[in-house]
């Protein structure tokens, strides 16, 4: 799994420092949005000229980042 994370890089000079697929300007958040919209990893890989492993790396990176944060659910008062 850690090998997958090597596919993700953060460089302040690329896409404002957002995490991207190594050697591209494709951001992790874009990949997450595409998956949420219903695209498959295979479709994303084909459309953006990356590998399915790159898509998996983006998912793993996002999971690792979210796993570090405490998420608070706030109920709206009505």
UniProtKB/TrEMBL annotation:
Domain of life of the source: Archaea
Coiled coil: none
Pfam families, alphabetized: DUF433
InterPro entries registered for this protein in UniProt: DUF433, Homeodomain-like_sf, WH-like_DNA-bd_sf
Stated name of the protein: DUF433 domain-containing protein
Organism from which the protein derives: Ignisphaera aggregans (strain DSM 17230 / JCM 13409 / AQ1.S1)
């Amino acid at each position: 799994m850690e090998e997958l994370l090597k596919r993700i890089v953060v460089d302040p000079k690329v896409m404002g420092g957002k995490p991207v697929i190594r050697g591209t300007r494709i951001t992790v958040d874009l990949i997450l949005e595409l998956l949420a919209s219903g695209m498959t990893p295979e479709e994303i890989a084909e459309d953006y000229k990356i590998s399915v492993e790159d898509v998996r790396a983006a998912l793993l990176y996002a999971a690792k980042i979210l796993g570090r944060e405490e998420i608070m659910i706030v109920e709206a008062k009505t």
